[in-house]
From TrEMBL:
It is found in: Membrane. Residues 31-451 form the Major facilitator superfamily (MFS) profile domain. It comes from the Eukaryota. One of its GO terms (cellular component) is membrane. Its main location: membrane. This is Major facilitator superfamily (MFS) profile domain-containing protein. It is a multi-pass membrane protein.
């Protein structure tokens, strides 16, 4: 049975697990499809430059040398720097207001990218796109932790992040269709890719305030009793009795997150995704194109790769939640992705293009599968809503600065082998998986030490207020492994 009283002692009618699952399904229907569509648009708008490049962007803008890579890189610098401030504004302004604002901003910028005329214009557009998009992924990730207990959040995160992976497939299909507009209005097909996809985001931004709920207590699709059950269940699974959603921002919350070793170790694990994946996204159509396929077929051949990644992401998230563990579903996929990279580098690409294409599936599955686990693992092990909010922002912010590295490791002069890109990605995957193993061992030792004390001994030593202020450092808090 779910709790029958809240922390203030107010009684709540009992609700069994089956009834509570019905409430969760209603929450799922209100949150997950919407976040999935919005994240698909986010990933689509940041990654469609790869499709535009195959369609002639570099040629028309006369990009030389590493200019294309620099334009990609300039997105990630502001994208990384603005994620923590964005998540602070999210808490202050609330999701229903802040998320549509940033969506409207990046949709407008994406639309205007369709009229850039030079390398400098492309760079400026990418910088502003990075600023505007910075807040969405950490905002959506944090929002899910406000609705779902710690061992139910990764599957939901897997659904909406899977939409990000699906955007790779959708982007290839959409780019294939939009390229047919080449010459319409006197504009090249790659310009229409930016314009149409940007306008779709603008329309979605206008609709979002009417569809997105802020939090359980203020939503309108649950009654008062259901709201209390959702909040109390969150308190139980977060191992705290205090809800600090309404607390004002204090710098001590920032320093709690900034000085937590778990956050920094999780960033290192996150880099095993961020550095390889962005180079992979932007370069995949080009890699396939250089295997001997036509530009049009290269766009279409990206679709099965991304569909496989989506299936793997959701499947991994399901079993991670079901088994209530994170690290195996991070470390094993990272090693799997590393294996795919070894195969890609080892096979002669001119002789066996089909085999290389097949190995790209292994790489995609390894890269995409890990990200929801890395973010969920960090969120599960940070207590206090402000600390969790800022800790997630730091992880994703500094983690995504790795994207600036990832966009500069696939050098045109190394085509079709891309030794630096594939080799560096292999190395960082091995480093990240090792960091994941170290963190699991460290958390396991802390858990054993905490479990050696009885609850009675802990309550004799600390007051409930002291334990709540300690957050995840409380001896009552058991870390997710």
């Amino acid at each position: 049975m779910v709790e029958d009283a809240d922390p203030n002692g107010e009684s709540i009618p009992q609700l069994d697990e089956a009834e509570f699952k019905k409430i969760l399904r209603r929450i799922d229907l209100r949150l997950i499809p919407l976040l999935s569509v919005l994240y698909l648009l986010s990933f689509l708008d940041r990654g469609n430059v790869g499709n535009a490049n195959v369609a002639g962007l570099s040629k028309d803008l006369h990009l030389t040398g590493t200019q294309y890579n620099i334009a990609l890189t300039m997105f990630f610098i502001p994208y990384g720097l603005f994620e923590v401030p964005s998540n602070i504004l999210l808490k202050i302004l609330k999701p229903r207001v802040w998320i549509p604002i940033i969506m409207l901003s990046w949709g407008t910028i994406m639309t205007l990218m369709g009229i850039v005329q030079s390398y400098s214009g492309l760079v400026v557009a990418r910088v502003f796109l990075g600023i505007a998009e910075a807040g969405f992924f950490p905002a959506a990730s944090y929002l899910l932790t406000c609705w779902y207990p710690r061992h139910e959040v990764q599957l939901r995160m897997g659904y909406f992040y899977g939409a990000g992976a699906l955007s790779g497939a959708f982007s290839g299909l959409l780019a294939f269709a939009i390229e047919k507009m080449d010459g319409v209005g006197g504009l090249a097909g790659w310009r229409w890719i930016f314009i149409i996809e940007g306008l779709i985001t603008v329309v979605a931004a206008v609709a979002t305030p009417f569809l997105l709920p802020n939090d359980p207590m203020s939503c309108k699709f649950l009654n008062d009793t259901e709201k209390k059950h959702v909040v109390n269940r969150l308190r139980e699974f977060q191992q705290t009795q205090r809800a600090d959603e309404s607390d004002p921002f204090k710098w001590e919350y920032f320093w709690q997150a900034f000085t937590d070793w778990k956050v920094w170790m999780s960033i290192l694990v996150y880099w095993g995704n961020a550095m390889p994946i962005y180079g992979f996204i932007y370069t995949l159509p080009v890699v396939i194109d250089e295997l001997g396929y036509s530009a049009t077929n290269a766009q279409l051949l990206t679709i099965p790769v991304y569909i496989a990644a989506v299936i793997a992401t959701v499947t991994s998230a399901y079993f991670s939640d079901r088994l209530k563990t994170r690290s195996p579903f991070i470390i094993i996929p990272q090693l799997f992705g590393a294996l795919g990279l070894v195969i890609v580098m080892a096979i002669p690409k001119e002789k066996y293009p089909g085999a290389v294409y097949g190995a790209l599936f292994i790489v995609a599955i390894g890269l995409y599968t890990t990200i929801t686990g890395v973010v969920s693992w960090n969120a599960n092990n940070l207590a206090g809503t402000w600390k969790r909010n800022i800790g997630l922002g730091l992880q994703i912010s500094i983690g995504n600065l790795g994207g600036a590295v990832g966009t500069n490791i696939y050098l045109r002069q190394q085509a079709p082998n891309y030794w630096l890109g594939f080799g560096f990605s292999l190395g960082i995957l091995l480093v990240a998986s090792s960091a994941g193993m170290i963190m699991r061992i460290a958390l396991q030792r802390i858990n054993k030490k905490r479990e050696s004390m009885s609850r009675e001994e802990i309550l004799e030593k600390y007051t409930p207020e002291e334990l709540d202020r300690m957050g995840d450092k409380s001896p009552l808090f058991i870390y997710t492994l």
